[in-house]
């Protein structure tokens, strides 16, 4: 068989290129058991010139990668800090019993053992994986969508508003995915004996309060998560831009992946601190309402007080959310780098050319 005949059996993309500058040469020897054959060179297609990435930006593959990155970043990190979240929720629900972080851990260890510190991990993992998928995937979509609506000049001029609008839009959808899991998680974590976890907790919850009860906390959840996410994304984008502008001596596109991921973690940690402060009152409300059947916002204010709503469990939440948010951006951008995409931030929002 002649080489030209064999070549017709190879898919075109294996030996074609979109750019001489971005293509790579791959030399292979094709054995011919009927006789000797010379080695031939063929090219593997590379991304479009100037992109330098395996996944093309703002394509379905890009949004799919963003969704997967969001699942990994939120699902894994929230599950890892389940013990901290468990103590925080109990401090919010029963401040008379759980007076501090250290005593809270001590009480839980004494009453429930080591395993008890991870109570509610299943609804945490599934709920925040679903939330992360929507949060990051839709944020990238809405950021591009609003930038295109604004146009090139306004996208740069009003970039912070675009970050805020994009993140808020994404979080509205993300919380619809999270809310049922969050309701079960809080009940499992704060009412010993209610259920072992998600598998028996979900049917018990629905039997007691109906399917609609799973969304009883959706409004305070939006009240907690939307400001949190707006702060998380807008402040992260701004902090990262400022770090590259004032603290990093090398332009972003010339920095190593390690440096860029370090900037992502630092920007995420600082953004997380701001997130914790802004969203903490609503976080107390979510825990209170999901713990007690028929409870109202007024009940929470009467029991905890306005100062208590703003400060009860805040130091622990600052540490937890700062670490959590830094790790989330680190994981998310690590996955983007893994699939050949750039890290987040450090540039104006994209617009349609």
From TrEMBL:
Source species taxonomy: Eukaryota, Viridiplantae, Streptophyta, Embryophyta, Tracheophyta
Name of the protein: Mitochondrial phosphate carrier protein
GO CC, any one term: mitochondrial inner membrane
One biological process term in Gene Ontology: response to osmotic stress
Pfam family, one: Mito_carr
Keywords: Membrane, Mitochondrion, Mitochondrion inner membrane, Repeat, Transit peptide, Transmembrane, Transmembrane helix, Transport
Membrane topology, as annotated: Multi-pass membrane protein
InterPro entries membership: MCP_dom_sf, MCP_transmembrane, SLC25A3/Pic2/Mir1-like
Source organism (scientific name): Solanum stoloniferum
Main subcellular localisation: mitochondrion
Record's function text: Transport of phosphate groups from the cytosol to the mitochondrial matrix. Mediates salt stress tolerance through an ATP-dependent pathway and via modulation of the gibberellin metabolism.
GO terms, molecular function: mRNA binding
Family the UniProt entry places it in: Belongs to the mitochondrial carrier (TC 2.A.29) family.
Solcar repeat residue numbers: 61-145, 158-242
Coiled coil in keyword set: no
Compartment list: Mitochondrion inner membrane
